[in-house]
Amino acid sequence: MKKIAIFVIGLILSAGCVTGEGGSGSSLGKVIARDGRFVAYENGTVADTDTGLMWAAKDNGGPITWKKAKGYCRNYRGGGYTDWRMPTQRELAGLYNPKITNTHPPTGGCKGGCHITNLIDLTCCPVWEWNGISEVSSFFHFDLGPKGWRDQSLTYHPRALPVRNTK
């Protein structure tokens, strides 16, 4: 009886670890790195253990308009999950840490150092955000900190960084 109880408890715990909370049943896989509250998984995702958010481990890789960034985030399928979205300013601000500088160098004419965990690779420091109003767009700048309001057709520098809730 004791062996059966231990087996059942082990099965329940392993099911929670494999599927993750609030997801589409995808496997988080093996932990490949940790950085304080952030945990990187082999499936290309990074969990924020303080906020319960899961981030793509990399941005979209190049300049993108706000409208295309929104679509990119919505259609992103990282880790096998289907519920990705564009982050809010508050969520992006939660990643910002002026005490650290990411070791991944910006690319494509971008300069500065992004103040974000090394587990997330930004190819440029500005990241598009969505505040729920389709006509207004802005981005959070991980080098400078504050957001900047921009026309949605802006095509240089800002990147898309998908996020999803796990709780």
Description:
This protein has 167 residues and is of the alpha+beta class. Helix content is 21%, strand content 19%. The protein is built from 3 helices and 8 strands; from the N terminus they run αββββααββββ. Strands 1-2-3-4-8 form a 5-stranded antiparallel β-sheet, with no helix packed on it. It has a 3-stranded antiparallel β-sheet with strand order 5-6-7. The longest helix is centred in the N-terminal third of the chain and has 18 residues. It is globular and about 35 Å long.
Query: Number of domains in the coordinates?
Result: 1
Rounded mean pLDDT is 81
β-strand percent reads: 15-25%
Shape: globular
The spatial strand order of the largest sheet comes to 1-2-3-4-8
Helix tally equals: 3
Give the helices and strands as they follow along the chain: HEEEEHHEEEE
What's the total number of strands?
8
Please outline what is shown here.
The chain has 167 residues and is of the alpha+beta class. Helices cover 21% and strands 19% of the residues.
Topology:
Elements: H1 2-19, E1 31-35, E2 38-41, E3 45-48, E4 53-56, H2 66-75, H3 89-95, E5 126-129, E6 138-141, E7 147-149, E8 163-165
Antiparallel strand pairs: 1-2, 2-3, 3-4, 4-8, 5-6, 6-7
